[in-house]
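User:
I would dearly like some help making sense of a protein record. Take your time, and here it is.
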Amino acid sequence: MSENTQTVKAIIARSAGAKVEEVPILIPEPGPNDVIVRVQACGVCHTDLAYRDGDIADEFPFLLGHEAAGIVETVGSAVTHVREGDFVIANWRAVCGECRACKKGEPKYCFNTHNASKKMTLENGTELTPALGIGAFAEKTILHEGQCTKVDPEEDPAAAGLLGCGIMAGLGAAVNTAAIEIGESAAVFGCGGVGTAAIAGARLAGAATIIAVDIDQRKLDTAREFGATDTICSADLSEEEVIERVKGLTGGFGPDVTIDAVGIQPTWRLAFYSRDLAGRMVMVGVPNLTDHVDIPAIDLYGHGGSIRPAWYGDCLPERDFPAYVALHRAGRFPLDKFVSERIALGDVEDAFATMRAGTVLRSVVEL
């Protein structure tokens, strides 16, 4: 062990489905392009639960947490992107500038995003797999400098960190992937944190009609606060009834844009069949490893338009994170309202249960 190795508290998942544990972990001395960030806040995202349950990969043990903001504490010898003391949001798209996507001018699809050069470990030397290359349910984490996006230091860390994943995913699905224009109509299926962010994004983009669809009336009430003009509780409705109601709110044609914010076949089908002919459908909800979508090929052909997955809301962190923090600071985007509760590091397992119950947009760990 190097004399510069640090020991900090962190939350790990040892095996699929097992409860998470708070344990000491070792943070190595940073490599030339690495930085150590003192984590101030980290949101509890559904992706962390998916890691814990083995729905994403089998590279246990996982160091969970990725929606994080904090202070750059130590920088490697070759770091130029940030400095010690900078307030940053962690991102999992540190574009390389060299892969085929970057060279085609599509860095939002970067296939070679940077991660730290060294691994964090348990005290016995077992290497940890950091969630989305970040691992921020910890007092400190090690990142590549490109994973650190500097933003206004006056921003609340609990709010800022949420741009690191779920909120940016939903917001970007509406603004970047769907490219909603002023006066258009949109429908969002699933009103958790990502779906509600898509609703807020649709309002920010100027959509005239924004329809929120969910099985939980409480979520629909919240959706109105973020910009939904109409809501549909689908709990006791058939697929055909939901589609009919969505179309009824858009002149019988269907919305210009539909967004599946859940990623399961029922919501995918609703988003697909509800949209206007030649409308744009965006899939931002992440499916699990076994889900499939089954529709007749003639329906795919006959509906025209486009179907696009939104990876990270097609965002560019260096462009988008500072911009949305600035919009929040100016009172034009309600980033802080996504913070439902502030919890301690040891409360992550309870936060997963709260998430499953659907009673929060985001629980945020504050350190």
Notes: The chain has two domains: 6-164+334-366, 170-311. The radius of gyration is 20 Å. The chain has eleven helices and 18 strands. The domain at 6-164+334-366 is CATH 3.90.180.10 (Quinone Oxidoreductase; Chain A, domain 1).
